[in-house]
Amino acid sequence: MARLSYREAGRLAIAEAMRADPTVWCLGEDLGRGGVFGQYAGLEAEFGPDRICSTPISESAIMGAAVGAAMAGTRPIVEMRFADFALCAVDELVNQAAKARYMFGGQSKVPLTVREPMGMWRSSAAQHSQSLEAWYTHIPGLVVIAPATPEDNYALLKAAIRNDDPVVFMEHKNLWDMEGDVADDATAEIGKARIACAGGDCTIVSWSAQVHVAMQAAAELADDGIDAEVIDLRSLWPWDEAAVAASVAKTGRLIVTHEAVGVGGFGGEVVATIAERHFASLRRPPLRLAAPRIPISYAPELENQVRVTARQIVAAVRRLN
Amino acid sequence: MASNLDIDRLRDRRRLMLRIRAFETAAIRAADEKLVLGAIHPSVGQEAVAAGVCAPLRRDDLLLSTHRGHGHTLAKGADAAAMMRELFGRDGGNCGGKGGSMHIADFSVGMLGANGVVGANINIAAGAAHGVKLRGGDQVVVCIFGDGAMNRGPFLEGLNWAASFKLPVLFVCEDNGWAATTSTRAVTGGPGPAARAEALGIATAAVDGNDVLAVEEAAQALVESLRSGGGPRLLHARTYRLLGHTSVDKAAYRPAGQAEARWADDPIRRATDLLLGAGVAQNVLDADAAAATAEMTAAFEDAKAAPWPPVSAAYDDVQDIGAVAAPAGL
What we know:
Chain A is of the alpha/beta class.
């Protein structure tokens, strides 16, 4: 057991994976100096500049090179710096990485892990703040992970690197400094949710940093005698329908809250799936609490317009209960 | 034609070009007969680039190709019958019928895929070379793309990448003069791909892309420099696309007489004339052509008779984690 930050937990996962497998390497901008958020600090000293590869600012080449290197027998960890910049590499991820195994009839897998730091982070404005996880869930071939805790960042990143599929691994920038206990042998299964807090009155589904907002709401509700169950999906594809369905069977109420824009967001998939397949469990109409369809602003008060707050979640739960 | 060795070599390369030509001819016929359903991009007229560039390669060297990739794939050693089945979308195709012409690949011979996106193979090739280097291998990677690709971003990013990391990749610009159905010259600034590569510190060579032995010799020298760790190289091979962009494109946008004039420069005709001049008998050369036609006719008939893939294959090879199940009964 160790007390680690979310950032350190990810770095430990990479170091352990690289020690265990000489074909694992990292490529991205500024990795030699530790990456833009320090999430690679010290790794170049241990593994050298060939395996901690500082690249040109060429997102398309970073992702495309990783595809080729994966097909040539290595296991690249791709750093995109900001999830927003991964949009410069959409062809390489969506048309190439995600589809190569399928369109070549299984002749090759593409075992790469793409780290995409996501989410709002201190007045970073419209091109450094987005949460685009739902896009990737739409693409057959991709696995999509968005951890909320240091232990999950450690365990799921290790699982992602071991996995032979291309994985979009979205770490939330606002969580880098968050500390938590990480068990030495911590493991997590991709596709299994975590019950962040158990309760029988209302199911709140979330992922990434928004889990912690949901937990604040649950604490406030507990003071009122309402026991919310907070489910941290952890991975969005695959996602743990069984865990959500079991919870809704108990509570009869479902709220999905995420930092991303609500329209076309993954909350819609969760709500639709529960409504289609588990309708009888629902005693109230399901709700989505997500960002309005506006870009993210720089000025704090404007930026706050896209945040779903604990207070809003509390109010929604009270309306349902 | 200096020696018997050269004659044998040229005859061998001509046989490969004939096989490519016969494959394309059979594929076009299959498209006309609605047996090949998707778009195909014939490489008729460009066979010398495929045959010459691949000649110095080892089986374990790697090749990345384009949407116009049948010739490259055959030249790297893929089985023509399996390729034809792939074009027909049948069981036993290289990709199980799931890729078709534009995604043809044969990893068993180091052919890591055609690509439906112009220029997308450039970054992938750089990465494959990066992977080879990290693993300490001595393979080289060859990336063939058309002249249209030099105007896409990956041309800059991938060539700069390969130069920065001194990777063993040979970029081949197979310049047929046409970016789909637009004259490349009309939409391209500057003198072309070699100047752009040289601006990134990549040594280049230019070659008559319809002279198969010249292509081979240029490629041979460049591949040797790659294998000795010299970093990436670019070969600019000028050729001509004798047919349209796709098999249904009549290419009416070309200046009158241009294609007709270029048929005189057909790389197969040039090889034939050289061999005849060197004293090889016409009937020997005719027999080589007949053998190529027979092979591809057999591949056509084999593909036409082959079964469709099992429908359940639509659900295979998507991903290990989170794959959706095939509906019951498939």
